[in-house]
Structures are given as structure tokens and as C-alpha cells.
Amino acid sequence: MVRAAGAEQGPSAASAYRRALEVVRGAPFEGSLADKHYEWVGAEKLDMHIANRVVDAAEALAEIALEAGDHATVLWAVERGLALAPSREALYQAWMHALGRSGDSQRLKEVYGRCCVMLRSELHATQAPSAETELIWRSYVER
User: Fold this and answer.
1) Prior bond of 129 cis (ω within 30°)
2) pTM of the model
3) What is the DSSP letter of 9?
4) Are residues 103 and 51 part of one domain?
5) Rounded mean pLDDT, 39-62
6) Same domain as 119, residue 59
7) Biggest CA pair distance of the chain
8) Collapsing DSSP states into helix, strand and coil, what is residue 85?
9) Closest CA to 59 of 29, 89, 35
């Protein structure tokens, strides 16, 4: 489904990404990896590969929705992506754009703070967030 969505453009791509994300329920193989019958999943890192594809789809949908001004879909996609990759900075960036464009400066500040905390804790980064995220945040807050 994700591959098919990538071949689409505009609203049809958004619809295809959304359909693909709607079938996702939690992390891939969640609760099964401890079972000896699923050792091959961990060995092949299949769970990580699938999770990355899901997060990529969430990011793509968020970007398409942002371009269309559909801030509710941006939030929906971001929530799904962050559930699997809580330190994916591009998702926070899309979320901040949606909040900034909708004029929700209080929530924007909260999301920026959450992004900073998450990146520092997950990545142990001293320079977090990126300059791009900082620029996005400042562009809406310093208006």
C-alpha cells in the first residue's frame, strides 16, 4: 500500500497513504518478538524495516496534508508516525507548521518543547533540535 501511495500524487496520494496507515495497529510484531517462532523477525530487523516504512508514510501524508492546508490530517499522520518513531524530527516540523499556520501559538510552543526534550533524551544530542526546526519555530513565534 505504501509503495502504491508513493506512485500517486496530490489528493489520491494522501488518500492512499491514509488507507495504508489506517491498517497499522501498534509496532510491527508487537508482543511477538519474544516468541521463538519469530526470532527471524528480529534477526532480519524486519520489525524495524516495517516501522520505518510506516513512519515514512506518515511523514509523506503529513507533508501532502500540510501543502493542502489540511491541518487535522497533518496531526493525524504525525501522531501515527511519532508512535513508532518518537524522535523523527521531520514529523515535529510538519506539526509545528500546521500549528503555526492555524495560529495556535500556545500549542506550537508546547510541541517545540516536546520536540526538544524528545530529541535530547532519545538521541542524547547536545544540539537539538536542528537549525531547521529552530527556524520553523522562530518563524511563527516571532511574528
Assistant:
1) yes
2) 0.83
3) -
4) no
5) 79
6) no
7) 56
8) coil
9) 89
